[in-house]
Design goal:
- By secondary structure, the chain is mainly α.
- It has one domain: Vanadium-containing Chloroperoxidase, domain 1, CATH 1.20.144.
- The chain has a two-stranded antiparallel sheet with strand order 1-2.
- Helix 1 runs parallel beside helix 6.
- The longest helix is centred in the middle third of the chain and has 28 residues.
- The radius of gyration is 21 Å and the shape is globular.
- 37% of the residues are buried.
Length: 276
């Protein structure tokens, strides 16, 4: 499969996702009378607030959240034990079909496509005055950026060598700036799971969720297949991406339900309820 065809596949996949979101979830129109400048300014403020909430979250982690974080770290370390065998297995089972699937997975994990999709959704939401589609656009951008920053910091601090460096799965230098030679976590896996988890949260359709996570899993496997990452790298990248996508999605769900006004029947009449 040549690069042009792969890129076309990536574009088609994202167009399908765009249509799925638009058809399944967010038909409502934005009734706000705000100007374009006011809308852009408001959304920028929301994203800055979200960044503070996400990166400040560890300061308020519950015991359960710390246990989950510890479990992910422990799981990554345990997978170090199978990294060499997983690499050998993948390199022994190369094929033309495998090459094509791996390339599709690699493309899905490229941040340029995820950010482009987010930008397309945001622009479409502005043009068609669809608030939820617009929100999905900047939430997708947030998910990728927040996860990407986390992965970049971890890669630099840990400094684990990639398989192609032929230094073994346990070679860790620490504090590296050349990220093209650092391995843990996988950036492609991070982006793929950030995209899939956020869209899964927003779409809320089990079939779409299965498809989205299948694509993300293909991305993770492709990085091992292409000898670009160790298996444990993709596990941690998937965890970082999922954590970012789910956190961003739920942050906005909580904000949407933080306060509401509704009119309900009350002893033959009606009453107004405001909840916070």
């Amino acid at each position: 499969m040549n690069s042009n065809r792969v890129i076309s596949v990536g574009i088609i996949v994202r167009l399908v996702l765009l249509l799925t979101i638009n058809s399944y979830v967010y038909p409502q129109q934005d009734s706000s009378k705000a100007s374009l400048g006011e809308t852009l300014s408001s959304d920028a403020s929301v994203m800055l607030h979200d960044a503070g909430e996400i990166f400040g979250a560890p300061l308020h982690f519950s015991e359960r959240e710390w246990i989950t974080t510890g479990g992910i770290a422990a799981g990554t370390l345990v997978l170090f034990l199978v990294d060499e065998s997983a690499r050998s297995l993948s390199q022994r089972n190369q094929s033309s079909i495998g090459d094509d699937l791996a390339e599709v997975g690699r493309q899905y994990g490229r941040e340029v496509y995820g950010i482009s999709l987010g930008g397309g959704l945001y622009a479409g939401g502005l043009i068609f005055k669809n608030k939820s589609v617009r929100e999905t656009g900047y939430m997708l951008f947030e998910s990728i950026v927040f996860a990407g920053v986390t992965t970049t910091v971890l890669k630099s601090v840990i400094g684990r060598s990639r398989p192609s460096e032929e230094e073994g799965s346990t070679r860790i230098r620490g504090f590296q700036t050349r990220l093209e030679t650092t391995s843990l976590p996988s950036g492609h896996a991070t982006v793929a799971f950030a995209v899939s988890s956020l869209l899964g949260e927003r779409i809320g359709n089990p079939y779409a969720t299965v498809g989205l996570y299948s694509l993300a899993t293909l991305t993770a496997l492709s990085r091992v297949y292409n000898d670009a990452h160790w298996f444990s790298d993709t596990f941690l990248g998937a965890a970082v991406g999922m954590a970012s996508g789910i956190a961003v999605g739920r942050l906005h769900d909580d904000a949407a339900h933080h306060s509401s006004l509704r009119v309900v029947p009350f002893f033959g009449g009606m009453r107004v309820e405001i909840t916070f």
